[in-house]
UniProtKB/TrEMBL annotation:
<feature type="domain" description="Metallo-beta-lactamase">
    <location>
        <begin position="22"/>
        <end position="217"/>
    </location>
</feature>
<dbReference type="InterPro" id="IPR052159">
    <property type="entry name" value="Competence_DNA_uptake"/>
</dbReference>
<dbReference type="InterPro" id="IPR035681">
    <property type="entry name" value="ComA-like_MBL"/>
</dbReference>
<protein>
    <submittedName>
        <fullName>ComE operon protein 3</fullName>
    </submittedName>
</protein>
<dbReference type="InterPro" id="IPR001279">
    <property type="entry name" value="Metallo-B-lactamas"/>
</dbReference>
<dbReference type="Pfam" id="PF00753">
    <property type="entry name" value="Lactamase_B"/>
</dbReference>
<dbReference type="InterPro" id="IPR036866">
    <property type="entry name" value="RibonucZ/Hydroxyglut_hydro"/>
</dbReference>
Length: 252
C-alpha cells in the first residue's frame, strides 16, 4: 500500500489528501471536528466518494462538520452523493457561481435530500474546527469556473495549509493581493499540477515547505513539468497521490 506520512510538532491537526485519482479531496480534522475541501474523483475512478468516506470513518468521523466545494467541476464534486450516503454532512459551503448549472443543481439537490445546510460564500469567512481555524476566501473572478472558486486556509498555531482549487496564476495573484496570507507549511498544488497554476508569485508570497499534488491517470499532462520545476526552484518538497497514495500530514 502506498502511503505518505509527514509530521509537524506544532499543534493538534490531522490532514489527509485522499488518493482519488484525477480528482480532489482534502480532509482536515482537529479536536473531534472534521472538514473536507472538495469531494471528487477521476471519471474512471470507481465508487466516487467511497475512498473519502472510508478515510473519514477510519479517523473516527461520525459526521462531517463542513464540506467546502471550491467549484462545481466533476472532479471536485462527483463524490458528494456517495459521501452523504454514508456520513451526515452538517454544512455545505460553496460558491454562488457555475458554468454548468446541471452539476450545480445536482449538488444542491443532493444536499437538500441529505439535510445538509447550504451556504454560498460571498465574503471572507472563518470557521472554528476544533483547535484549528478555517478561513474561506470567496471567488475572485476570472475567465472561467476555475477562477470563480473558493480557496481555503487551515491554520493551527504556526502551521498553515493553503488550498486554491483550480484557480490559475492570474487569480492566485488576486488572492495574495486581496488577503494577508501567511508563510505556509503546506500547499495543495493548484489544478492537479497544471502549468497554468501555482505561479511564481504565489510561491514567493507564501513560501510553502511542501506541496501535495492530487493527481491520477489523465490526458492533460498533469502534473506539468513547468509546475514541478517552479516548485523545485522554490525549495518545495513535492508529494503526489499517484505516487504515494493518501498523503497524511500530522500536526502534533
Amino acid at each position: 500500500m502506498k502511503l505518505g506520512r509527514l509530521y509537524y510538532a506544532r499543534g493538534a491537526l490531522d490532514i489527509v489528501a485522499v488518493d482519488v485519482g484525477q480528482g480532489a479531496g482534502t480532509i482536515m480534522a482537529s479536536g473531534g471536528q472534521f472538514a473536507l475541501m472538495d469531494c471528487g474523483s477521476g471519471s474512471s475512478w470507481p465508487g466516487a466518494g467511497s475512498d473519502t468516506a472510508d478515510q473519514l470513518l477510519s479517523m473516527g468521523c461520525k459526521e462531517l462538520d463542513y464540506l467546502v466545494l471550491s467549484h462545481y467541476d466533476y472532479d471536485h464534486i462527483s463524490g458528494v452523493a456517495g459521501l452523504m450516503d454514508r456520513l451526515r454532512v452538517k454544512a455545505l459551503l460553496a460558491p454562488d457561481y457555475w458554468d454548468d448549472s446541471n452539476l450545480r443543481n445536482w449538488v444542491m439537490e443532493t444536499a437538500a435530500e441529505h439535510g445538509a445546510a447550504v451556504e454560498f460564500v460571498t465574503a471572507e469567512e472563518t470557521r472554528a474546527l476544533g483547535n484549528s481555524v478555517l478561513t474561506i476566501y470567496p471567488p475572485l473572478g476570472g475567465d472561467n469556473d476555475n477562477d470563480h472558486g473558493l480557496s481555503l486556509l487551515c491554520s493551527d498555531g504556526d502551521f498553515d495549509l493553503l488550498i486554491t482549487g483550480d484557480m490559475d496564476a492570474k487569480t492566485e495573484e488576486k488572492l495574495i493581493s486581496a488577503y494577508p496570507l501567511p508563510d505556509i507549511e503546506a500547499l495543495i498544488v493548484g489544478h492537479h499540477g497544471s502549468k497554468y497554476s501555482t505561479g511564481e508569485e504565489l510561491l514567493d508570497a507564501v513560501k510553502p515547505e511542501l506541496g501535495v499534488v492530487s493527481v491520477g491517470r489523465n490526458s492533460y499532462g498533469h502534473p506539468s513539468e513547468e509546475a514541478l520545476r517552479r516548485l523545485v526552484r522554490a525549495g518545495v518538497t513535492v508529494y503526489r497521490t499517484d505516487k504515494q497514495g493518501n498523503i497524511h500530514i500530522f500536526v502534533k
